[in-house]
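Practice problem 4.
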């Protein structure tokens, strides 16, 4: 007849902890916490991407001078026009007041789609549906950050703005 096993639950736990770090209570709890934080972040972002993952708008390599009369849409407050001339760094300007303009990139902050579209006084990215206000604030659709704004200097005498 075989003698019954003398293994006690305590010795089983000690052996298991030595062999498997997940059985250490503190380690297990901290890993569970990190996993839950990661799950929350992924859920909050929708597709697991946070902020810009594609090409960045970046600083302009040189100032962009825009003659306002060349863009009829900017004649009225609230008007928006793409002003970069169709390059790889698309920029839009919105007239926010009589003598105030805001310039924003037309490169989506989600995954870098360019150019995003100007639709009814705001921006929409056709790639995954991010929506932005006229001044570039994220307003809905695919979660992402605001569009980059550039500095704008108005020259009322010349009728130009310089974007940097
Ligand atoms: S690239 Fe995904 S919403 Fe614009």
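Answer key:
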């Amino acid at each position: 007849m075989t003698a019954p096993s003398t293994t006690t639950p305590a010795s089983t736990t000690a052996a298991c902890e030595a062999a498997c770090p997940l059985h250490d209570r503190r380690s297990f709890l901290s890993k569970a916490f990190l996993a839950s934080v990661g799950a929350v972040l992924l859920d909050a972002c929708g597709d697991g991407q946070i902020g810009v993952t594609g090409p960045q708008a970046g600083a302009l390599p040189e100032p962009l001078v825009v003659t306002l009369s060349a863009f009829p849409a900017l004649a009225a407050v609230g008007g928006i026009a793409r002003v970069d001339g169709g390059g790889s760094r698309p920029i839009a300007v919105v007239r926010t007041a009589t003598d105030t303009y805001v310039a924003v990139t037309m490169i989506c902050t989600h995954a870098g789609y360019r150019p995003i579209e100007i639709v009814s006084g705001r921006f929409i990215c056709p790639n995954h549906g991010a929506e932005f206000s006229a001044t570039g604030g994220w307003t809905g659709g695919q979660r992402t950050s605001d569009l980059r704004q550039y500095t704008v200097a108005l020259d009322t005498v010349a009728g130009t703005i310089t974007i940097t």
